[in-house]
């Protein structure tokens, strides 16, 4: 019986200025920065906020490559393997789609990004002053979404302890609202 494998990007993207004043792509995971080349960045972007099997990865990557002409430093398979080895892409394998997705999501952890007021203000000013976007339109981009009760519960739990997605699902099923103390984590 054949197995299924799904992939997704891990971390979040930032641009950093190097010692030569050039902008470089960086992936951040748990406050650790990982430099990536343009091919790795393109592949990581293809997988960002997506759960894809290899044929889907190949299709989306090729679409992006048509738009941007990404220099191929290695084969797509080797690039994907390198990103997986470095922990910038997660994968899950199983006999069925369900098993593969469970394997993928079961090992991932939710780490909420902090809301930095200074960073938000700088981004707002960049949009309005440097890019000429009207303040009324830019303000809409910075309005917070109102999460549902379940989303708020998951976010509150993820701020208390580093929990895998499987643990978050279990806490939600059981109605657990506080995992800040050890007894809750041992159950």
Topology:
Layout: E1 4-9, E2 12-17, E3 23-29, E4 32-35, H1 38-47, H2 54-68, H3 76-85, E5 89-94, H4 97-106, H5 117-130, H6 135-141, H7 149-160, H8 165-174, H9 182-186
Helix pairs in contact: 1-2, 1-3, 7-8
Describe this structure in words.
By secondary structure, this protein is an alpha+beta fold. Helices cover 50% and strands 16% of the residues. It contains 9 helices and 5 strands. The chain has a 3-stranded antiparallel beta sheet with strand order 2-3-4, with no helix packed on it. It has a two-stranded antiparallel sheet with strand order 1-5. A hairpin with a 5-residue loop joins strand 2 (12-17) and strand 3 (23-29). The two termini are 36 Å apart. The mean pLDDT is 82.
